[in-house]
């Protein structure tokens, strides 16, 4: 009789994992589905018999002590499930699958305006999702009943069948049909949920939206998602923020931008202008000689920083307006003004910019 260790090509002190890997490697080469040669089939029987012995601690110990490799009686079919696990990479737990399963996460989008995004707000939202059936409280049975053991599989959730093959008798398992693999059956299903333990329902939920959120941010509400089958624990509800556009304010992370149209004389002489911010009216100091495109920053009037606290800035971009039409008196005054400054008609020169002001304005108003 061939030595089982030599048959698998392993040493006597090899670990169980080493023996398993050796068998899987040989089985892939010698399996009848891969190589139908009768001689190869005999070899497959030998390595299978060797693995059945060496993979079982008791049989291996008996074999090492010179006893029978079957421990007193041949029972080839009994250990075949372990052999198939080694060949197909199995090893997962068997038995009835649970009726109660965890529920899925849910996602809902809500729209907020810029003021709500800056200062935070509480919203009541209406969500339709799966909840525990109020009639059976998740059992799926009528009048407080419980599932009973399946008489076909005796609660195992699977049925077994013995078939003959080239390597002997093989025990195969498959999910039990009458109980769908649960190991139990519901004789009188709940009429409300049809035995599922959950129903669809619409519920109102209050969501606290923190200050500083922006489009794409998600708020996680633990346990407010879908209840699982059989009244299993609910998943989470994620509320995704969608920020609506403001009439005249443009957001750039924690900075707000706005455009201010200013007369030529006001820009030249300087002035104070009141604009409407998210906090209400705020004064903007315009220095004399302010050029078109000049940004004026107002500290702490921008967006709330979501994680770091504090506020960004409100940046006012000044646009100096040149009069498009002048009456005779205004035209004479402008000519007089030009004479006083020594300016001549047609005086102009090309000026290169450093990109700072231009890029800020372009970046703010082309998003």
What does this structure look like?
By secondary structure, the chain is α+β, with helices and mostly antiparallel strands. The protein folds into four domains: 4-88, Helix Hairpins, CATH 1.10.287; 106-141 and 194-243, Urease metallochaperone UreE, N-terminal domain (HSP40/DNAj peptide-binding domain, Sandwich), CATH 2.60.260; 148-185, no CATH class; 250-365, HSP40/DNAj peptide-binding domain (Sandwich), CATH 2.60.260. Helices cover 24% and strands 27% of the residues. It is built from nine helices and 15 strands. The protein has helices at residues 4-8, 16-30, 38-54, 57-64, 80-88, 114-119, 264-269, 328-340, 356-365, and strands at residues 106-112, 121-132, 148-149, 158-165, 168-175, 184-185, 198-209, 218-221, 237-243, 250-252, 255-263, 271-277, 280-286, 295-298, 314-321. A four-stranded mixed beta sheet has the order 10-11-15-14. Strand 10 and strand 11 (255-263) form a beta hairpin.
Search tags:
three-stranded mixed sheet, repeat, Helix Hairpins, DnaJ, alpha+beta, four-stranded mixed sheet, 367 residues, 4 domains, HSP40/DNAj peptide-binding domain
| The first-level CATH class name of the largest domain | Mainly Beta
Using the coordinates shown, work out and report the CATH topology of the largest domain.
Answer: HSP40/DNAj peptide-binding domain
What is the approximate shape?
elongated
- Low-confidence parts, pLDDT < 50 over ≥5 residues? 68-93
Q: Using only CA atoms, what is the Rg?
A: 40 Å
- Measured by DSSP, the beta-strand proportion falls in 25-35%
Helix-strand category = alpha+beta
The CATH architecture of the largest domain would be: Sandwich
Domain J: 3-67
GO molecular function, one term: heat shock protein binding
Pfam family, one: DnaJ
Keywords: Chaperone, Cytoplasm, DNA replication, Metal-binding, Repeat, Stress response, Zinc, Zinc-finger
């Amino acid at each position: 009789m061939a030595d089982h260790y030599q048959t698998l090509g392993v040493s006597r002190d090899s670990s169980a994992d080493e023996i398993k890997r050796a068998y899987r490697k040989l089985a892939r080469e010698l399996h009848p589905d891969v190589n139908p040669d009768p001689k190869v089939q005999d070899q497959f029987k030998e390595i299978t018999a060797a693995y059945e012995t060496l993979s079982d601690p008791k049989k291996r110990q008996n074999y090492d002590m010179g006893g029978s490799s079957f421990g007193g009686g041949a029972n080839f079919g009994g250990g075949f499930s372990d052999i198939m696990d080694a060949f197909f990479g199995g090893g997962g737990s068997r038995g009835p699958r649970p009726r109660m399963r965890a529920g899925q996460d849910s996602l809902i989008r809500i729209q907020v305006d810029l003021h709500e995004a800056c200062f935070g707000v509480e919203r009541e939202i209406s969500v339709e999702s799966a909840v525990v059936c109020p009639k059976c409280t998740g059992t799926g049975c009528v009048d407080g009943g419980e599932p009973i053991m399946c008489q076909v599989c005796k609660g195992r959730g699977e049925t077994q069948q013995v078939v003959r093959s080239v390597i002997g008798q093989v025990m195969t398992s498959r999910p039990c049909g009458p109980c769908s693999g649960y190991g139990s059956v519901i004789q009188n299903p709940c009429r409300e949920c049809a035995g599922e333990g959950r129903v669809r329902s619409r519920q109102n939920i209050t969501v606290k939206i923190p200050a500083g959120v922006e489009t794409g941010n998600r708020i996680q509400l633990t346990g407010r998602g879908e209840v699982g089958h059989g009244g299993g624990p609910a998943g989470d509800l994620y509320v995704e923020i969608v920020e609506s556009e403001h009439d005249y304010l443009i957001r750039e992370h924690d900075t707000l931008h706005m455009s201010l149209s200013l007369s030529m004389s006001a820009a030249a002489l300087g002035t104070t202008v009141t604009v409407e911010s998210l906090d209400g009216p705020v004064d903007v100091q315009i220095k004399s000689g302010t050029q078109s495109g000049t940004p004026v920053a107002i500290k702490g009037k921008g967006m709330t920083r979501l994680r770091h606290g504090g506020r960004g800035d409100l940046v006012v971009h000044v646009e100096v307006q040149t009069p498009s039409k002048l009456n005779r008196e205004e035209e004479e005054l402008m000519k007089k003004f030009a004479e006083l400054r020594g300016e001549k008609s047609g005086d102009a020169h090309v000026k290169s910019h450093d990109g700072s002001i231009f890029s800020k304005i372009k970046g703010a108003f082309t998003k």
